[in-house]
Specification:
By secondary structure, this protein is an alpha/beta fold. It is 56% helix and 14% strand. The chain has an 8-stranded mixed sheet with strand order 3-2-1-4-5-6-7-8, with helices on both faces. It is elongated, with a radius of gyration of 21 Å. The structure holds NADPH dihydro-nicotinamide-adenine-dinucleotide phosphate and (2S)-3,4-dihydro-2H-pyrrole-2-carboxylic acid (A1CAB). (2S)-3,4-dihydro-2H-pyrrole-2-carboxylic acid (A1CAB) binds next to helix 8. Pathway: Amino-acid biosynthesis; L-proline biosynthesis; L-proline from L-glutamate 5-semialdehyde: step 1/1.
Length: 273
């Protein structure tokens, strides 16, 4: 099976690396700049600027360009070349209806992974379109990147906010914890190790024990001890509300991008509803 990765940037490169790690060797990746192509080739992909060649010579196509590049990419491929291809779009916000209009004869899936695919730990949600047949192959390829959740498309924008953008939110929290460690006297490296260990350990404990986060919090919290002092500071600074608003804002932006891209695809490709 041959796989095309259209747009071998940050997430596209991770797709190439994940597939190579999984044993796939027939991969073609595209980009515009020399640097992008050089990088794709160094990862083991055939690198080309020719999107039409990449799509027409492959069975499965991953779309990993920025949302505003979607119309240009569709135009760079002959309509006949999309026919019969299985296309998995990682483009934030881009709706299945838009993608199916843009690539009229392709079998289209909308998915949202995250950058943790770099270490095989993506949380990827995927929704099928109206013409999809080969879910097993898509499932197998996505599993090379980490966990896969088949969901209705209505969850994709929320998933994009929580899981797609999630690594950035968690990285901010980790950075804050490291600064906090330094504030109270730990050397930076030690604070960083502690922050990563606590995050990884808590995550694993919750997943493996099935314990509710409230119960874990209460188990850690000694009356008149240290944790409760920290918890009241978190409450008064609105940490929970800030995180909820972060995800809600990202969700709204995903919806906005979806509407913008739909309008651009219709305008630039001359498609009507
Ligand atoms: N970054 C992330 O964590 C995640 C991103 N996504 C989604 O993945 C998509 C890509 O994001 P990201 O990887 O961060 O972005 P990048 O900008 O890193 O990568 C996009 C790539 O697309 C290439 N490209 C642009 N136009 C064309 C074209 N006409 N033909 C071929 N290649 C082209 C660019 O190549 P060049 O630089 O050579 O122009 C670039 O390498 C977005 O839609 C985003 O929503 C989804 C989940 C997570
Ligand atoms: O920030 C973005 O738009 C993309 C989608 C999810 C992660 N990065």
């Amino acid at each position: 099976m041959r796989v095309a990765v259209i747009g071998a940037g940050r997430i596209g490169s991770v797709v190439v690396r994940s597939l190579v790690r999984c044993g796939y060797s027939e991969i073609v990746a595209t980009g515009r700049r020399d640097e992008t192509l050089k990088n794709a080739a160094s990862l083991g992909a055939e690198a080309t600027r020719d999107n039409d060649y990449a799509v027409s010579s492959s069975d499965i196509v991953f779309l990993t360009v920025k949302p505003h590049h979607l119309p240009e990419v569709v135009k760079s491929v002959k309509p006949a070349s999309w026919a019969g291809r299985t296309v998995v779009s990682f483009i934030a916000g881009a709706r299945l209806a838009t993608l199916e209009k843009a690539m009229a004869e392709a079998e289209v899936y909308r998915a949202m992974p995250n950058l943790n695919a770099e270490v095989g730990l993506s949380s990827t949600a995927v929704a099928q379109g109206t013409r999809t047949r080969d879910m097993a192959t898509v499932d197998r390829l996505l599993k090379c990147m980490g966990r896969v959740y088949w969901v209705p498309e209505e969850f994709l924008d929320a998933w994009t906010a929580l899981a797609g953008s999630g690594p950035a939110f968690i990285a901010e929290i980790i950075d804050a914890l490291v600064l906090a460690g330094v504030l109270v006297g730990l050397p930076r490296d030690l604070a960083y190790s502690a922050a990563l260990d606590v995050l990884e350990g808590t995550s694993r404990l919750l997943r493996e024990s099935g314990t509710h986060p409230f119960k874990l919090r209460d188990d850690v919290t000694t009356p008149a001890g240290t944790t409760i002092r920290g918890l009241i500071a978190m409450e008064s600074e609105g940490v929970k509300a800030a995180l909820m608003k972060a995800v809600e804002s990202a969700y709204r932006r995903s919806l906005e991008i979806g509407a913008e891209i739909d309008a651009r695809v219709k305008r630039e490709l001359g498609i009507s509803d």
